[in-house]
Amino acid sequence: MRAVNEIIVHCTATPEGRPVTVSEIDAWHRARGWSGIGYHRVVGLLGERWQGRALDKIGAHCEGHNSATIGIVYVGGLTRDGRDAKDTRTTAQRKALLEELIDLRDRFKIQKVSGHNEYANKACPCFNASAEYDHLFEGRSKDFYPVLDRVLFRGRTGNDVAIWIDRLMDWRKVTGSNVILRPGNVFDHDVEMETIIFQKARGIVADGKVGPQTYGEMERALLGQKPYLALEVA
Ligand SMILES: [Zn+2]
């Protein structure tokens, strides 16, 4: 399991009372060019507790805060007419969400629950998650600080650099061209050049830095999918 210290709560931003399944969310997120559902857990209208993305995989649910978090979504978040943000959690959903949070807290070193709206200018999840759940983490939340997703660039070293080099090598294999890099954990000049070649090939900003867009584009490339920007134009 990867290291996690925080749970981020979301809503599906769908009208009150409308059921939503995991496969629907999965389809929405694939349409955005992701590899599948970005949340790890889904709480249905009747209090169902479903599995989304595997917990040991980094999610795609809160920009800049995915690497050390678990994303949970409840179905709902809008008024019945779909116009306004609203805390639409049913009694069963509140109970299931609380059980889910306690389970995850006890399985992992979770220190805090936050709402998506604490990190982005959004209403999601349409209630104050910190205020409601802070009491679950007494004694654990003291030295909490959010882990920011690391951007890689020349001069960086470490495990995430090693993983990125592996990806670049895999990309060469997938595209049938010669593998230039060798395994390592240093983001040196060669890795920077190879990153720029990859970015140019995929039509994204070729700055040699690896952030969310470049990671996402690599995920698509290794799955044999077209560049995301090409999709938008089509
Ligand atoms: Zn959200």
Please write out the topology.
Elements: E1 6-11, E2 14-15, H1 22-31, E3 41-43, E4 49-51, E5 69-74, E6 77-78, H2 91-107, E7 112-115, H3 129-133, H4 159-174, H5 189-202, H6 212-222, H7 228-233
This protein binds zinc ion (ZN).
CATH class of the largest domain: Alpha Beta
Residue ranges: pLDDT <50 for 5 or more in a row?
A: none
Q: The biggest beta sheet, please?
A: 5 strands, mixed
State the end-to-end CA separation. Answer: 38 Å
What's the overall average pLDDT, rounded?
92
Bound molecules: zinc ion
What does this structure look like?
With 234 residues, the chain is of the alpha/beta class. It has two domains: 6-137, Lysozyme-like; 159-233, no CATH class. The protein contains seven helices and seven strands; from the N terminus they run E-E-H-E-E-E-E-H-E-H-H-H-H-H. The chain has helices spanning 22-31, 91-107, 129-133, 159-174, 189-202, 212-222, 228-233, and strands at 6-11, 14-15, 41-43, 49-51, 69-74, 77-78, 112-115. It has a five-stranded mixed β-sheet. The longest helix has 17 residues, at 91-107. It starts with 5 loop residues before the first strand and ends with a helix. 32% of the residues are buried. The model has no long low-confidence stretch (mean pLDDT 92). Zinc ion is lined by residues 10, 116, 124. Zinc ion binds next to loops.
How do you describe this structure in short?
The protein is α/β, with parallel strands linked by helices and 234 residues long.
